[in-house]
Design goal:
The chain is α/β, with parallel strands linked by helices. It folds into two domains: 12-146, Ribonuclease H-like superfamily/Ribonuclease H (Nucleotidyltransferase, domain 5); 152-192, no CATH class. It is 36% helix and 15% strand. The protein contains six helices and five strands, in the order E-E-H-E-H-H-E-E-H-H-H. The protein has helices spanning 51-64, 75-81, 83-96, 131-154, 160-163, 169-178; strands at 12-18, 27-33, 67-73, 104-108, 120-123. The chain has a five-stranded mixed beta sheet with strand order 3-2-1-4-5, sandwiched between helices. Strand 1 and strand 2 form a beta hairpin. The longest helix is centred in the C-terminal third of the chain and has 24 residues, at 131-154. The radius of gyration is 17 Å and the shape is globular.
Length: 202
């Protein structure tokens, strides 16, 4: 059972990212403020929710959230500032875009770069603990998956409509065969294909 809120006084925004461990494409992040009475029985960490239910949850969250924003940082900037900083930047852009200013940030994970004067709490596995972080994980994941399906039309040989840029075996074999596309994160270029991390998120 997800906790509705961390506390009862301040306006909370949940923050999460998607695509941090990918070999290609941008990293996406979302910030979500939920109403006090928000509930959906299927809401959970996006990795625990089947794709069709993720899409239904995306629509429900967008319809019922007090505020939400999704942002991304592209592969070139990831290579320039590194994936950790790019993830933080995407979250900051998402928070910037909220039409309601949060008073507390709940961030999935164990690290975060402070956003202005707003206090934050890092929550390990927070997307499976707090509703607002779970909602952010759903939005970040579904928006990024949609984007990667669009890139698949341009580079179908990498199977991005299936692996979404993660380092599955098929993806790594495609890199070995075709080389890197213009959307691959070039910071991985120095690694032999057999040494690339194996990521298999759906």
């Amino acid at each position: 059972m997800l906790a509705s809120f961390y506390q009862e006084i301040l306006v909370e925004a949940g923050c999460d990212e998607a695509g941090r461990g990918c070999l290609a494409g941008p990293v996406f992040a979302a910030a979500v403020i939920l109403p006090r009475n928000f509930f959906h029985p299927l809401l959970n960490d996006s990795k625990q929710v089947p794709p069709p239910q993720r899409e239904a949850l995306r629509l429900y969250i967008e319809e019922h959230a007090v505020a939400f924003k999704v942002a991304s940082v592209d592969h070139e900037e990831i290579d320039s500032i590194n994936i950790l900083n790019a993830s933080f930047k995407a979250m900051h852009i998402a928070i910037d875009g909220l039409p309601v200013t949060p008073e507390l940030l709940l961030v999935d994970g164990n690290r975060f770069k402070k956003y202005g004067s707003i206090p934050h709490h890092c929550m390990v596995k927070g997307d499976g603990r707090f509703a607002s972080i779970a909602a952010a994980s759903i939005l970040a994941k579904t928006y990024r998956d949609e984007y990667m399906r669009q890139l698949h039309e341009e580079y179908p040989q990498y199977d991005w409509n299936s692996n979404k840029g993660y380092g599955t075996l098929a993806h790594r074999k495609a890199i070995a065969t075709y080389g890197l596309s213009c959307y691959h994160r070039k910071s991985f270029q120095c690694l032999p294909v057999e040494q690339l991390s194996f990521w298999n998120e759906s």
